[in-house]
Amino acid sequence: MPDRLSALDASFLYVEDHATPMHVGGVAIFERPRSGFGYAQLVDLIGGRLAYLPRYRQRVLAVPGHLARPVWVDDVDFDLNYHIRRSALPQPGSDEQLFDLVARLMSRRLAPERPLWEAYFIEGLAGDRVALVTKTHQSVVDGVGTIDLGQLILDPAPAEPEPFEDIWTPRREPSRTQLVLDAISEGVQRPGEVVENVRSAANDAFATAGKFAETVGGVASTLRTLVSPAPPGPLNVRVSGGRVFAVVRTRLEDFRKIRAAHGGTVNDVVLAAITGALREWLLSREVPLTPDTTIRALVPLAVRDAETAEFSTPALIGNQVAAYLVDLPVGEPNPVLRLQHIGHAMAEHLDSGRSVAARGLLKVGGFAPATLHSLGARAAGSLSGRIFNVMVTNSPGPQVPMYAGEARLVEMFPVMPLMRTQALAIGVTSYHGGVYFGLNGDRKAAFDVDLVAGMIEESLEELKGAHW
Predict the structure, then answer these.
(1) Closest of 213, 430, 426, 467 to residue 328, by C-alpha
(2) Where would I find the beta strands (DSSP E) of 357-459?
(3) In the predicted model, what is the mean pLDDT of residues 132-143?
(4) Into how many domains does the chain fold?
(5) Which of 34, 159, 278, 398 is the most exposed place for a label (fewest CB within 10 A)?
(6) Which domain holds residue 279?
(7) Where does the O-acyltransferase WSD1 C-terminal domain start and stop, copy by copy (predicted)?
(8) How far is C-alpha 200 from the chain's CA centre?
(9) Is residue 121 part of a domain?
(10) How many other CB atoms are found less than 10 A from the CB of residue 77?
């Protein structure tokens, strides 16, 4: 039987164009150890673990006539050095230069004729630091058979990567005749699917993407009753092919203190800080606000299998991501009231009993946020962009140091993809006492994303000092 893409995975390929590449990224910054950590060591580290990720050595092969969805086949010309690339900033490279490079890398589509991932080893950062920038297509990471590369290469203790010998032998690629025969055989059993496949491949995937949403746990059921479009505003415009990227560095302790003072959860405080920043950003653009003005956020949350009592890896990551819609009260001037409104809205989702608390996610092996952000992007990508203004993913990470080889991970910033009509996407990850925001914006519509980043810091300070 052919290893055929699911309907949801195929839809991510069909809707992709030059303005909306469908990959999820991450920026990991490491301290270079005294023993050194260079490109060759990274290649050894990743190459030695690719056996655990067979999808990373497979490419997508289309079926002639689009009689069936594409299939995964082994890349007989797989070249690890093509996928792991080396770059450098002019020393001493600044964070601004790094994030400008990240924006340009993220704006480029992955080559469709090769396995759908890339990693960039970037040297030259000030302070003897190096960065690893990863790009993985949404069709690759499903949380069951394939996790994100960033989760696989990080360990809780330093260890020198061992040189590896690539003894992988690819399977022979099926012929066009075999692809057609397989498609005809499946079409006889499910004739309606043939029409759907041709329709989707003809760039009508947005009309059918909603039908595919049910393959992601909880998404369709959560939104089945929703009919109202998202509030209009500058966040919902047709995006260009350019990107801008900015980050925010905060401390987890600050969020915990605000939670202790005003109630709710750390995630509520994160959303409240973002809400305050978006309020100031809208005012800076002279957008009129009333006390009832809101921005609708799509907030993917990990959920557990209702039949699984333990927080095991399969129970947490097995396509179990629910996409919740939360109206952020940007019209409310009182920061504590904003937090309370968000807390009440999120409590309704938490009361469902399926959402996973941070302590449960931390039991997942490796650096799970990389995979969970990818699953969050899948949940968002399966829905119409007309029903939300901004995507916000927040995944807690380990509060102990993690290592790639002997290099210690210092910071980790998610890079979430943009939908066709979303000018801003925000990813948040906590790690070793820090909370790190990655803001990916459209270069035309959100050219001032660095202002939003600064406003998140100001909004957090406002919550810390609030005595309302």
Answers:
(1) 426
(2) 390-396, 403-404, 407-415, 424-431, 434-442
(3) 89
(4) 1
(5) 34
(6) 219-400+411-464
(7) 318-464
(8) 24
(9) no
(10) 10
Q: How many CB atoms lie within 10 A of CB 225?
A: 6
- The structure tokens 């309302």 sit at 468
Average pLDDT over residues 169-196: 78
Q: Are 462 and 276 in contact (CB under 8 A)?
A: yes
* Residue 270, domain member (yes or no): yes
Cα–Cα distance measured from residue 449 to residue 425, given in angstroms and rounded to the nearest whole number = 10
Tokens of 306: 């209702």
Instruction: Compute the residue count for the chain.
Output: 468
| Of 306, 431, 448, 311, residue with least CA distance to 373 | 431
Q: How far apart are CA 397 and CA 369, in angstroms?
A: 6
pLDDT (tens digit per residue) in 193-239: 544 554 544 444 444 334 333 333 334 334 433 447 888 899 999 99
| CA distance to 51, 105, 415, 434, per residue, from 102 (Å) | 28, 5, 9, 21
Tokens of 128: 């003897």
pLDDT class of 305 with cuts at 50, 70, 90? very low
Q: How many CB atoms lie within 10 A of CB 461?
A: 15
Element (H, E) at 181: helix 176-189
**Tokens representing residue 116 in the block:** 């759908």
CATH number of the domain bearing residue 447: 3.30.559.30
> Is 310 a domain residue?
yes
CA distance 70 to 32: 42
CB 389 within 8 A of CB 233: yes
Per-residue pLDDT reduced to its tens digit, 396-420:
888 899 999 999 999 999 999 998 9
CA 229, 232, 235, 239 dihedral sign is positive
Mean pLDDT, the chain, integer: 83
Q: Is residue 65 part of a domain?
A: no
3-state secondary structure of 37: coil
Q: pLDDT band at 466, cuts 50/70/90?
A: low
**Identity of residue 61:** L
- Give me 125's structure tokens: 């950062």
Cβ atoms of 342 and 272 closer than 8 Å: yes
Interacting residues of 178 by C-beta distance below 8 A, sequence separation 6+: none
Instruction: Considering only residues 317 and 95, tell me which one the structure prediction assigns the higher pLDDT.
Output: 95
409 and 403 in contact (C-beta within 8 Å)? yes
What beta strand segments (E) does 378-433 contain? Answer: 390-396, 403-404, 407-415, 424-431
| Of 376, 268, 270, nearest in space to 323 by CA | 376
- Per the CB < 8 A criterion, the answer to whether 418 and 440 are in contact is yes
8 A C-beta contact, residue 424 and residue 390? yes
Q: How far apart are CA 214 and CA 303, in angstroms?
A: 15
Average pLDDT over residues 339-347: 93
Contact 324, 349 (CB under 8 A): yes
Cα–Cα distance measured from residue 224 to residue 229, given in angstroms and rounded to the nearest whole number: 13
Sign of the four-CA dihedral 205, 211, 213, 219: positive
